[in-house]
Write a structure and sequence with these properties.
Layout: H1 3-13, E1 26-31, E2 34-38, E3 43-47, E4 52-55, H2 63-73, E5 78-82, H3 88-91, H4 94-104, E6 110-114, H5 117-126, H6 128-138, H7 143-146, E7 167-169, E8 172-177, E9 180-186, E10 195-199, E11 204-208, H8 228-241, E12 245-248, E13 254-255, H9 257-283, H10 288-292, H11 299-302, H12 314-326, H13 341-352, H14 355-365, H15 370-383, H16 388-404, H17 408-430
Parallel strand pairs: 4-5, 5-6, 6-7, 11-12
Antiparallel strand pairs: 1-2, 2-3, 3-4, 8-9, 9-10, 10-11, 12-13
C-alpha cells in the first residue's frame, strides 16, 4: 500500500493494520518530484531541476541500498544533502552518497546541517566504544522483533567516510532550490542540533525525528539530554505553517492539513503535560522517586497509533525533564555520596542470611512485582558476583522483566542484564 494511503487509513481509524516503520529500502514517489526511500531512517529526495536535494542519508548499514533505490527514481546528481540532525542513522550512510557521486562523475553533495552537528561527530569519535556499547545494549535482542536494520558494521560507530557539513547555521537558513524556497529551522528536541525543513510554496514539511510514529524519543536513558518542552514548541511552530504533507524520518508520511495538525498537537500536548506536571511537583519539593511514580500519560493517549511507547516511554521522559531542570541528584540523601553497590548489597545479604535468600525472593516476586524483583536480583548479584546459581536466577528474573516490557529501550537493557548473568554462568562451567 502507498505510504500516504496507509497512514491516512491508520490515523483516521486508530487501528494499526500494517507495519508503520517499513524498512524496505524501496523508493516511493509522494508527489511530483518528491520521493521517499523507507529505511530504518528514511531519505527524502526533492528533484529541484538542478539536482536532488536529499534530507538525511540513512545509516551505515543502509546507505548504499538507499542510494541504489534513489538511482532507480532519478539519475540527477545529489547536489545537496541536508542533515535533520547528527544521529548515526541519519548521517552514517553519507559515505554512500559520496561514493555514488564519484562513480557517476558528479561533484560531492553539498552538505548542510546545524552548527552543532560537527561537534556531535567529534563527540561520537571521542566516545566511539561507549556508543557501540550503549547501542548494542539498546537494541539487544529486539532488532528482529521491531523490524529494524542497523547494519553489521559495529567496529566504528560512524563510518570513517561520514560527511561533515560544508555549510552550517544557527537559527534559520533560507535556500533557493531550483526556484523553490526551502527554509531550515533549528529547534532543540531529541537533539541540540535538530532542524526541520519547510517548503512554503509546496506546503511540504520534513520533520526529521520530531515525529517518529512512537512516543517522542525525549527520554532515552543512555543518551545525552533531550528537550521535551522545546520539542513541543517546535511542533506548535510547525502547525502554524499549515503543512499539507508531512514527511518524517521514521514512520509514514502524513497528508492533509487537519490530520497533520491533529497528530502534531497530540505529541506537543503530551510533552507539555509531562513538563508541567514534573515542574509542579519539583516546585512542591517532591523527590524524583515521587515524581516518577506519580506523573503519567493517559492510556487513551498512548493507544493512538503514533503515540505508542514502543521505543521510548513517558517514564524516561520524566527523568530527562528532572535532569534538565533539577540536575542529577534524585533527592535521596543516601544517594548523594553513596556506598558502592557491592558494599550495600553485601551488608543487606548478610542481614537477611545470604544472597541466596535475596535471589530466591526475587524469583518469587516475578509473579507479582517485577520492579521489586529486579532490585533484589541486582542486590543478590552484586553480593555474589561470581556465584553461578545466583546469576542463573538473576538471568531468569530479567528475562521475565523483558517479556513484560513494551518499549525497545527497556527490552534491550533488561536483555543485556540477563546476558551479563548468563555469561557468569557459562564462565563458571568453562572453569
Amino acid at each position: 500500500m502507498h505510504p500516504i494511503e496507509l497512514s491516512s487509513k491508520i490515523i483516521d481509524s486508530g487501528v494499526i493494520s500494517e507495519p508503520i516503520n517499513r524498512v524496505t529500502n524501496e523508493v516511493t514517489e509522494l508527489a511530483t518530484d518528491l520521493a521517499i526511500v523507507e529505511s530504518f531512517s528514511h531519505t527524502v529526495a526533492f528533484d529541484t531541476g538542478e539536482g536532488l536535494m536529499c534530507f538525511d542519508a540513512s545509516g551505515a548499514g543502509s546507505g548504499e541500498a538507499v542510494v541504489s533505490s534513489l538511482r532507480s527514481w532519478r539519475s540527477a546528481p545529489v547536489s545537496t544533502l541536508v542533515y535533520t540532525h547528527g544521529h548515526g542513522d541519519h548521517i552514517g550512510g553519507s559515505f554512500a552518497f559520496a561514493r555514488d557521486a564519484e562513480n557517476q562523475g558528479y561533484a560531492r553533495p553539498h552538505v548542510i546541517g546545524h552548527e552543532n552537528v560537527s561537534a556531535r561527530i567529534d563527540r561520537y569519535n571521542e566516545t566511539n566504544e561507549w556508543n557501540l556499547l550503549i547501542n548494542q545494549r539498546q537494541f539487544g535482542g529486539t532488532v528482529s522483533e521491531m523490524g529494524l536494520s542497523i547494519g553489521e558494521n559495529w567496529h566504528s560507530f560512524l563510518p570513517k567516510g561520514t560527511l561533515r557539513p560544508d555549510q552550517t547555521f544557527r537559527d534559520v537558513l533560507r535556500l533557493d532550490a531550483g526556484g523553490t524556497a526551502v527554509e531550515l529551522h533549528h529547534a532543540r528536541g531529541e537533539t541540540d542540533d535538530h532542524l526541520w525543513a519547510w517548503l512554503p510554496e509546496k506546503k511540504w514539511l520534513f520533520s526529521g525525528d520530531f515525529v517518529i510514529w512512537y512516543y517522542p524519543n525525549a527520554g532515552n536513558p543512555q543518551k545525552v539530554q533531550r528537550y521535551a518542552l522545546e520539542w513541543a514548541q517546535a511542533l506548535r511552530t510547525m502547525i502554524a505553517q499549515g503543512p499539507e504533507l508531512l514527511v518524517p524520518a521514521h514512520g509514514l508520511p502524513i497528508e492533509g492539513r487537519e490530520r497533520i495538525a491533529s497528530v502534531l498537537d497530540d505529541i506537543a500536548s503530551s510533552l507539555e503535560s509531562l513538563v508541567r506536571q514534573v515542574i509542579e511537583m519539583m516546585n512542591a519539593g517532591e523527590t524524583l522517586d515521587a515524581i516518577i511514580h506519580t506523573v503519567k500519560v493517559p492510556q487513551s493517549v498512548l493507544d493512538k497509533p503514533y503515540m505508542r511507547p514502543a521505543y521510548d516511554e513517558p517514564e524516561f521522559v520524566v527523568r530527562n525533564i528532572w535532569r534538565l531542570y533539577g540536575g542529577w541528584w534524585d533527592g535521596a540523601p543516601s544517594r548523594l555520596k553513596p556506598s558502592t553497590d557491592a558494599e550495600l548489597a553485601g551488608e543487606l545479604a548478610a542481614l537477611v542470611g545470604g544472597p541466596e535468600i535475596l535471589i530466591d525472593r526475587a524469583v518469587a516476586l516475578t509473579a507479582t512485582d517485577l520492579r521489586l524483583a529486579c532490585h533484589l536480583a541486582d542486590l543478590a548479584g552484586w553480593a555474589a558476583p561470581d556465584n553461578p546459581e545466583v546469576h542463573a536466577k538473576r538471568a531468569e528474573v530479567y528475562i521475565a522483566r523483558r517479556k513484560d516490557e513494551v518499549s525497545l529501550m527497556s527490552k534491550g537493557i533488561y536483555r543485556s542484564a540477563s546476558r551479563e548473568s548468563e555469561e557468569i554462568v557459562q564462565r563458571s562451567r568453562r572453569d
